[in-house]
Each structure stands twice: as C-alpha cells, then as structure tokens.
Design brief:
alpha+beta, 3-stranded antiparallel sheet, 6 strands
C-alpha cells in the first residue's frame, strides 16, 4: 500500500522587529524565514539588528485543488513561503502561513500584511512529494482557428 504525503507541516516563523527610521512608524518588520530552515548563525546576526519574534505552531496546509499553484512555486527560481498577518496596533497577529502565492495575493488585496521568505530545502522536498502525488496538469486545449479567408469573402460581396 502506498503512503500518501502529508498535507500539513508545522513550522515556526521568525520575524525581526527593528526600530523604524520613518517618523510615523515605531517599528519595521521582516520575515527572516521559517523553522526548519534557519541556521543559528543567521538568527544571531539578525538579533543584533533588533528583536526576534518567534511565532510557533503555524501550519502549512495543502489542498489537492491548488497543486497548480504549488507546482509554479516550486518551479520558480526561489520557492517561497508566505506569512499573512493582521495589524493589531503596533503588533502583528499571525493569521495563516501558506506556500500558495495566489492565496497570499488575495490577502494583499484586502490590505493584510503579507511577508515572504525563501522555503528551506526540507519544506521544498515535502511540497514536491505532495505535488508529485496529486498534481494533474490541465490537458492542452486545441484552439479552433477562425477561417479568415471566408470572413473576407463575405465582406467583399
């Protein structure tokens, strides 16, 4: 019996909060990445720039009907994960973590805060297993060509 790949992967996101140089903002935020995937030396270098905030128990959830978006993410030069947050005063509240750019873009349109970061190799491998198991590209559609010469003859009469 074949084991199907998991549709969930629990991650932690690491955000860097730095004092802002902008006169109307007190802090600026940057998503450093997702754990697994960040090395300890990367985190130490970032900690020197500001405060590290760990958002634990986030979950990437995959759905078979969105395999096309996951495939395109994997085929991009740098696959990415997205963290969607809502602003609560000066703080951010995580809403969702996703690997689907289309989903992230829909939240951007509603003025939610969306961060992106490169996906770690372990997450890419997990995503690839899911895509290989469930992705079925749409069959090519044959175009019907319009008969231009018949249309021209009809206009000439």
């Amino acid at each position: 019996m074949q084991a199907f790949p998991s549709d969930r992967f629990t991650v932690s996101a690491v955000l860097l909060r730095k004092p802002s140089s902008h006169r109307w903002l007190k802090a600026s935020w940057q998503l450093l990445g997702f754990v697994p995937g960040l090395e300890q030396d990367e985190l130490q270098r970032a900690a020197a720039q500001g405060e590290l905030i760990y958002l634990t128990d986030l979950e990437f959830r995959l759905h078979k009907e969105f395999c096309d978006a996951y495939y395109h993410n994997l085929m991009s030069p740098q696959p990415k994960g997205y963290l969607i947050c809502s602003e609560e005063g000066e703080n951010l509240a995580p809403m969702r973590a996703t690997v689907d750019f289309d989903e992230a873009a829909s939240f951007m349109e509603t003025d939610e805060v969306v961060f992106d970061a490169p996906l770690a190799d372990a997450l890419c491998v997990w995503l690839e297993h899911f895509v290989v198991a469930y992705y079925k590209p749409a069959p090519p559609k044959k175009r019907k060509r319009r008969k231009w010469h018949d249309a021209e003859k009809g206009d000439a009469k």
